[in-house]
Amino acid sequence: MSTLTAKLLRINLNVSNFIEEKISDQHVKRFISARGLGAIYLFDELAPAVDPLSPDNKLLLLVGALGGTGLQGFSKWMVMSKSPLTGTVFRSVTGGNFGIWMKHAGYDLMIIEGKAATPTYIHLDEGGVHFLDAAGLWGLNYRRLQAQLKETHGQRTESACIGPAGENLVRYAVIHSGERTASRGGMGTVMGSKNLKAVSINVPAKKPSPFDPIAFKDLVKTQVNILKEHPRKQTMTTLGTPYITKIVNMMGILPTKNYQEGSIPNIEELSGDRFFELKKARAGCYNCMTRCGGMRAVNHGPFKGSQIDGPEYETIFAFGPLVGLSDRQFIIDANAMCDVYGIDTISTGVCVAFACELFARGMISPVDTEGLRLAWGNKEAIFSLIEQIGQRRGFGRLLGEGVQRAAAQLGGDAPSLAMHIKGLELPGYDPRGVKGYALSMATSNIGGSHMYGRPREEFSGQADPLAETGKGAMIARVQKEQALEDSLIACTFGNTGLDADMYARLLLAATGIDHFGSAENLLKIGERIVSLERCFNVREGFDRKDDTLPERMRREPLLEAGPATDHTVANLEHLLDEYYRALGYTSRGIPGIDQLQALDLPEAAESIKAFTAT
Ligand code: SF4
């Protein structure tokens, strides 16, 4: 027995058929599950230069090796594909129950290929896989869609689905799972490009059986005891991610007015405690005692009168200081408006802030925006712009392309105001005040993500966040650790207190695979994944020139930022050299052939040989 099913379901929408395949022992040993498996399947099966919105792109749904067990905070799932925003390999993590239903159905992975001729959804039940007409579901928001699917297929039905923005091919559309979303990188756009409205599952629960059930049960008990005592768990349970706002404001890295400033004076308004006052109920993912979510009432838009699970910190910054506001209810309502259409709150907020700065500088006017006066903090105009983006009309049609493409199309000075890395809109941490984090974002193989490797040391005081040297090895390490955690889908907030040694004990008891019983082997798997993802991108033409930061971060001093005031990231080239050295990459940021062989990645070594020669 093993908690890994080692089975995948391959679905072809061109011809409405499916096939079950075994995931090879070699793949499992080298990559475990989830992000690792996704990376190797995308590398093997996507030819370079595939258009992300063409039928040739593939959408992968993945669940972790420890998902669906009694372990706390390991039951999230992820979506992987080539991103229509960045053109890179991409992964986006979410919660809800869908991933565990996949596991109950007997799969660690689904690969969705091709494109349906007409709007379609896929339903899995005990009778098999069904390809069904989604014409009557097209245009529905996720709540109405999920309710409809439950009515048709039974109340236990769980689904991964898209809203109107995914259908409209807004490049940062999300995939919903219950009240949670796989938000980043346009995974919902890829799904929409395949004419696929939903994948739903209703099968009897079938918990995965660990290889050594007694040892595994003991380890689960140990984890629960660690969590019970841990202060971080208590903070997450009570406040959730809104607790972050005061910390980043104090550090001067709270992005304000499109990353011109790094703090706001009235931060109490956006503190975790003030958001706690609006919390109506706790919320969370399958089998997680941390339950970091919170339900809050919506006062505006189609979801008015109901509650949403949110906002997270990343939404607070995006519809707060970033657009010149500190209004809690506005942030909740803007979050709900993004959910109605199914768009990523970070990318939407950054695109809106970009438009506000264009407006403030007189580079656009109401003539360009269907009459919207996009002054900083104009709530009504911002709501309308979110709707325009979701519906892909007016100025929202341009912004729905993502800030990089929108700026390129506008031309002139617009690209210098577009805050993205490799096309992915920046998250809620100004890189100028956390130089290691800046390096992690610059080198991330999925673009400007806060979740590719987070140097906790820069937040805890163990490392000087403003130092611009000595960060390369630290970032190489945190990226490897993150890749390992993503290959188990260990939730960053729900796995408090666990380390690679504990993962090794858990995996050994869960799967019986001796190789996983060593923390050293597991960290090597993390490194293997990061390097493989880089090889995917190298084949697409990415190299050192793309490991960069927006011009503003390199040249424009950060304002109103406490300790980070007047900082830029002046020494990025030095940081890159350190990082490449730590990972055995060439000075162009390309993995060395010897290094790839040592990582047991012969296919990647062969594939990028031509790039290392130049
Ligand atoms: S900590 Fe929060 S995000 Fe993580 S698994 Fe638990 S409820 Fe989900």
Describe this structure in words.
The chain has 614 residues and is of the alpha+beta class. It has three domains: 7-201, Aldehyde Ferredoxin Oxidoreductase,  A, domain 1; 230-418, Aldehyde Ferredoxin Oxidoreductase Protein, subunit A, domain 2 (Orthogonal Bundle), CATH 1.10.569.10; 431-613, Aldehyde Ferredoxin Oxidoreductase Protein, subunit A, domain 3, CATH 1.10.599. Helices cover 41% and strands 13% of the residues. It contains 25 helices and 17 strands. The strands form five sheets. Strands 2-1-6-3-4-5 form a six-stranded mixed β-sheet, with helices on both faces. A four-stranded mixed β-sheet has the order 8-7-12-9, sandwiched between helices. A hairpin with a 4-residue loop joins strand 1 and strand 2. The protein is globular and about 65 Å long. The chain binds iron/sulfur cluster. Iron/sulfur cluster binds at residues 73, 76, 95, 236, 284-285, 288, 290-293, 491, 493-494.
